[in-house]
Amino acid sequence: MNTGSDEPGEVAVSADGETGEKTDGTKDGQGLGSRAPEFVKSRRLLHLSWQVLIFVIGLAVVVAGIIMLPLPGPGWVVIFGGMAIWATEFVWAQLVLRWTKRKVTEAAQRALDPKVRRRNIILTAIGLVIVAAILGVYLWKFGFEMPWNIKNQ
User: Which long-range contacts (CB under 8 A, 24 or more apart) does 132-135 make?
Assistant: First the structure.
């Protein structure tokens, strides 16, 4: 999995939390590393405790999202929310979120392509015609009876 940026000069990893610099000397504004307050980062034990707390909170949110996948609820949104919580502290989560954002943007651009939109509209129309035909056959055969109230066929 390529988690780097599309820009060739960008620094991929910064362990000390400084903002990344590109080879042309410009700051990218979204550096990698911890976003903890300075007083937390200055004390090793406090920073480690902060990271454990962020990991546990992010894990709880991700697990809640995974539980919501088969159940009602915004499962994927909650999972990405947990990843965003992790990304405030961990470089690997920041890289995964960058990769995910790039892929979502690419998919959105592909969906706006006129040929893809036309295909999606045609497939949706065909699906609606099939559902309407099945509903019509059901109503013709059984009327407005609910399936659990049908006695004899």
Answer: none
At 32 the pLDDT is: 72
Q: Can you give the pLDDT at residue 140?
A: 86
Tell me how far apart the alpha carbons of residues 13 and 6 are, in angstroms, rounded to a whole number.
Answer: 15
Contact 55, 45 (CB under 8 A): no
Crossing angle (nearest 10°) for helices 44-68 and 75-87: 170
Give the pTM.
0.52
Q: Are 90 and 96 in contact (CB under 8 A)?
A: no
- Tokens 């099945």, located at residue: 134
Task: Specify whether the CB–CB gap between 20 and 11 falls below 8 A.
Answer: yes
- Determine whether 105 is exposed, middle or buried from the number of CB atoms within 10 Å of its CB (0-12, 13-18, 19+): exposed
- The phi-psi region of residue 122 (left if phi > 0; otherwise alpha if psi is between -120 and 50; otherwise beta) is alpha
